[in-house]
Design goal:
Pfam family, one: ABC_tran
Organism: Kineothrix sedimenti
GO molecular function: ATP binding
Largest sheet: 6 strands, mixed
Distance between the termini: 37 Å
CATH class of the largest domain: Alpha Beta
Bound molecules: adenosine-5'-triphosphate
CATH topology of the largest domain: Rossmann fold
Shape: elongated
Strand order of the largest sheet: 6-7-8-3-9-10
Radius of gyration: 21 Å
Oligomer: single chain
Keywords: ATP-binding, Nucleotide-binding, Transport
Number of strands: 14
Helix content: 25-40%
Strand content: 25-35%
CATH architecture of the largest domain: 3-Layer(aba) Sandwich
Protein name: ABC transporter ATP-binding protein
Length: about 280
């Protein structure tokens, strides 16, 4: 299977921040969620993927093309992008945006665009500057999905949206990947959205990729253990990924395989896995 995105040893350093040798692969047809706290480096990574900022080192292959090759411009047609700052001229309307996009993208599909505009209940004749944040996001998503992209890259695209619209958009994304060999990379703070949507979860923390793993595998590998401190200490050290003490003992994220039978474990959520891994990593 081809990879929609392959990142190898991607490094970018700012004065107080370093995106540090990030490597990951997004297989075609899959959805990858990029999770990380504020300032973890998600937007930096997405800008580097689009070659909008200069990397220090590393390699990025998108849809089989090096993103620094001369003909990457052509590949950009195949990428639908939604950034936090949507980047459309604010004085124009959704209808006028259609005319601009028609000239920008060879594969622009007017009908698809207006279908999304209607589906998202966006006013066609209102200047974008008078849209709410959620409406702007919806417009950007409509545009990104209307030029026959094979890869969607979304940076915090669902965070300003109400739960009902978010849910609808998650369905649209699922539809998008089900149809053909379409792939999505989506960053979000809303872990529950990503848990619902994604096949892969990539977790970025302080510029380092803590893991990039199939969601089902994560949920299979880790469990939450509730026990006494002495019981936890009796486990092998490598079993424990992170822990939190409470008045009864400890809650810990542990490897399922390494927990003896009979102990009090329950399934971990992606949110548990992330929160507890951060505790484990920050301790080292
Ligand atoms: N042009 C720049 N010059 C200096 N530092 C920068 C620049 N752009 C980003 N940074 C720093 O890089 C770090 C990562 O920022 P980035 O925007 O990638 O985080 P993020 O994970 O997208 O965060 P958020 O969830 O808050 O959007 C931050 O510490 C930020 O201050």
């Amino acid at each position: 299977m081809m990879n929609a995105l392959e990142i190898t040893n991607l490094t970018k350093e700012y004065k107080d921040f370093k995106l540090d040798k990030v490597s990951l692969k997004l297989p075609s047809g899959c959805i990858m969620g990029l999770i990380g706290e504020n300032g973890a480096g998600k937007s930096t990574m997405i800008k580097l993927i689009m070659d909008a900022i200069k990397r220090d080192s590393g390699e990025i292959i998108i849809l089989g093309k090096d993103n620094r090759s001369d003909d990457f411009k052509l590949t950009k047609e195949d990428i639908g992008i939604v950034l936090d700052d949507i980047g459309f001229p604010e004085i124009i309307t959704a209808k006028q945006l259609n005319a601009i996009m028609k000239m920008t993208y060879q594969n622009w599909e007017e009908e698809t665009y207006f279908r999304y505009i209607a589906r998202f209940s966006l006013p066609e004749k209102k200047p974008i500057k008078d849209y709410s944040r959620g409406m702007k996001m919806k417009l950007a998503i409509a545009a990104a999905m209307s030029h026959r992209a094979r890869l969607l890259i979304l940076d915090e695209a669902t965070s300003g949206l109400d739960p009902i619209v978010r849910d609808e958009i998650l369905d649209i994304f699922l539809e998008f990947t089900r149809k053909e060999e379409h792939s999505i990379l989506i960053s979000s703070h809303i872990v529950s959205d990503l848990e619902k949507l994604c096949d892969y979860i990539a977790f970025l923390h302080k510029g380092k990729l803590i893991f990039c793993e199939e969601k089902d595998r994560l949920l299979e590998t880790y469990v939450m253990l509730h026990c006494k401190k002495t019981e936890l200490n009796a486990l092998q050290l490598s079993a424990v990924k992170g822990k939190r003490e409470n008045s009864y003992g400890v809650d810990a994220l542990v490897e399922r395989k390494k927990v003896p039978r009979g102990m009090n474990v329950e399934n971990a959520s992606i949110e548990d896995i992330i929160l507890f891994m951060v505790k484990g990593v920050d301790k080292q």
